[in-house]
């Protein structure tokens, strides 16, 4: 991790920032440059994740495309050059960071494929021993081979006892705190979101009501190539443009009655380019042509959204937020190597009930009392499995991950490999995310609107700050976000 967050450093960069920024105490400073966000909030926020895009990629892109749409956005925007997504950095916790203002210990959302000690298998009617795999991806669709998969099949959902009654756990039920989508929708305003699986039902939040419109073509039905993924992402882009006409594409879940106050979604093309082609192995790791093609597509798509906002005379009253759910590791292709994930479980020397592996391994043991023994065995064999750190016990809790003895969603052990190591038997990927390295976590994060003065903000920020920023930009109290309140997450510098 780099420099820790410092209000002093921020104040040095931003004339409008104040060391007194906090709950309900922001906005006053903004009057100095004639823009009082609190009194004149934005009417709309558009929030996009360029999945896989690092903070360093923003700089690399600007260097090769100095006249790009992203460059134009930054001419009146704040670029946060040291922004971190959650640990772990899987898409699910990465999205929840932005939309709840909180990390996995608070959201309960650790990964899109994980174990929960008090859930039961799908279709079991909460019988059998407690503890179940919880996978919220294409697996819960009616038919994931279809772009329009039919949505979530309840028969495939894990179950849990709620007040003694067995209930199916939809993705949105799995989330423990509310989302910005729920807060905005609860005000009678319209919200619309697009992502890669119907499982992104999770953004609706625990009430299940956070979206006016969900748009979830199934990415699994699409070839794992940059070209096919760009074609897929275009569906999302077209939906965003339609929403600005109060229209919804076919297969949308829900409908709009007005232009959405809050809308957005993700891009997958960069992530697929990173995993299949990646960066060049030369100094500075420039983009390969395939990766540049993916960034150019994203840039043109953002340009199309801006053009549409201008055509609708909404550009000045809209805040555009671009923040990645996750990065991708390693950036340097020379660091990449694969290790059979079963090696990790074997090295523990104890019974492992569940293991989630990517460029991280999350271990749930059959008997949590074995934790210290398993961790000692892993440390003793660290070199063989290219392990950088083993996080467990008091350290796990002290590092902000929660306590596995008290929380059924917290793993017993987090294994962090050396950067570039992927615990997988897949032949396809040359990079991965989900882990806790800087390459996984240091993500693109910038905001833009015609009324903002260009600023490069070097202070460390977290993408959990995106949620409070969006609510405050719309004139709402960020404390309405339960996760942000619980973790004390503030808006990004420039917005408090
Ligand atoms: C599920 O279990 C409950 C008792 O826990 C029982 O009343 C109910 O009939 C069961 N449902 C099914 C479909 O087996
Ligand atoms: C899923 O869709 C494919 C393509 O239409 C079809 O061949 C397959 O039988 C379907 N599977 C199920 C389980 O309905
Ligand atoms: C910006 O976006 C527009 C609209 O998609 C696109 O036509 C243009 O090529 C993009 N790039 C630049 C440099 O304007
Ligand atoms: C781990 O142990 C299992 C069961 O003995 C074995 O099948 C597997 O090959 C082992 N994995 C490695 C990487 O040695
Ligand atoms: C550990 O838990 C798994 C999953 O519940 C089970 O299949 C396995 O038999 C257990 N192993 C031991 C040694 O108890
Ligand atoms: C906690 O982590 C630190 C740094 O990795 C290490 O020095 C220390 O020994 C760990 N403590 C425990 C109890 O594992
Ligand atoms: C939008 O805002 C910019 C910068 O504040 C200003 O120059 C421009 O006139 C505004 N345009 C409209 C249509 O209000
Ligand atoms: C970002 O999160 C880390 C914990 O992961 C925390 O120590 C730090 O204070 C946070 N920074 C801000 C600005 O909230």
From TrEMBL:
Keywords: Signal. Residues 1-19 form the signal peptide. The keyword Isomerase does not apply. Coiled coil: none annotated. Gene3D superfamilies: Alkaline Phosphatase, subunit A. The keyword Signal applies. InterPro entries: Alkaline_phosphatase_core_sf, Phosphodiest/P_Trfase. Pfam families: Phosphodiest. This is Type I phosphodiesterase/nucleotide pyrophosphatase. The lineage of its organism: Eukaryota, Fungi, Dikarya, Ascomycota, Pezizomycotina.
């Amino acid at each position: 991790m780099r420099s820790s967050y410092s209000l002093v450093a921020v104040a040095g960069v931003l004339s409008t920032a104040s060391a007194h920024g906090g709950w309900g105490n922001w906005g006053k400073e903004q009057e100095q440059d004639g823009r009082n966000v609190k009194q004149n909030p934005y009417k709309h926020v558009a929030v996009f994740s360029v999945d896989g895009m690092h903070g360093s990629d923003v700089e690399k892109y600007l260097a090769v495309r100095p006249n790009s749409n992203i460059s134009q956005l930054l001419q009146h925007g704040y670029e946060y050059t040291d922004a971190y997504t959650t640990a772990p950095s899987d898409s699910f916790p990465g999205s929840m960071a932005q939309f709840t203002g909180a990390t996995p210990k608070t959201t309960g959302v650790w990964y899109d494929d994980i174990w929960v000690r008090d859930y039961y298998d799908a279709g079991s009617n909460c019988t059998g021993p407690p503890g179940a795999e919880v996978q919220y991806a294409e697996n819960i669709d009616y038919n994931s081979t279809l772009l329009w998969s039919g949505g979530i099949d309840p028969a495939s959902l894990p179950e849990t006892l709620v007040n003694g009654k067995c209930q199916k756990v939809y993705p949105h039920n799995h989330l423990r705190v509310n989302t910005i989508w729920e807060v905005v929708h609860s005000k009678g305003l319209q919200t619309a979101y697009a992502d890669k699986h119907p499982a992104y039902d999770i953004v609706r939040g625990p009430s299940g009501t956070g979206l006016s419109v969900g748009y979830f073509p199934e990415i699994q039905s699409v070839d794992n190539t940059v070209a096919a993924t760009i074609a897929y992402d275009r569906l999302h882009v077209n939906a965003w443009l339609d929403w600005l006409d109060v229209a919804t594409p076919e297969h949308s879940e829900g409908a709009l009655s007005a232009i959405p106050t809050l809308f957005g979604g993700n891009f997958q093309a960069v992530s697929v380019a990173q995993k299949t082609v990646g960066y060049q192995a030369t100094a500075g790791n420039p983009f390969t042509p395939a990766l540049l093609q993916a960034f150019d597509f994203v840039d043109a798509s953002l340009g199309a959204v801006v053009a549409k906002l201008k055509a609708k005379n909404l550009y000045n009253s809209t805040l555009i937020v671009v923040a990645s759910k996750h990065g991708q590791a390693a950036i340097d292709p020379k660091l990449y190597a694969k290790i059979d994930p079963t090696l990790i479980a074997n090295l523990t020397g104890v019974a492992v009930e569940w293991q989630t592996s990517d460029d991280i391994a999350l271990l749930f043991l059959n008997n949590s009392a074995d934790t210290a023994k398993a961790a000692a065995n892993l440390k003793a064999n660290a070199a063989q499995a290219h392990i950088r750190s083993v996080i467990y016990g008091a350290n796990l809790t002290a590092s902000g991950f929660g306590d596995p003895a008290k929380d059924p969603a917290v793993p017993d052990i987090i294994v962090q490999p050396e950067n570039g190591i992927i615990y997988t038997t897949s032949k396809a990927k040359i990079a991965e995310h989900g882990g806790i390295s800087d390459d996984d976590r240091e993500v693109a994060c910038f905001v833009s609107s015609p009324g903002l003065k260009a600023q490069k903000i070097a202070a460390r920020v977290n993408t959990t700050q995106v949620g409070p920023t969006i609510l405050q930009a719309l004139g709402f109290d960020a404390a309405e976000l339960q996760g942000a309140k619980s973790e004390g997450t503030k808006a990004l510098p420039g917005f408090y």
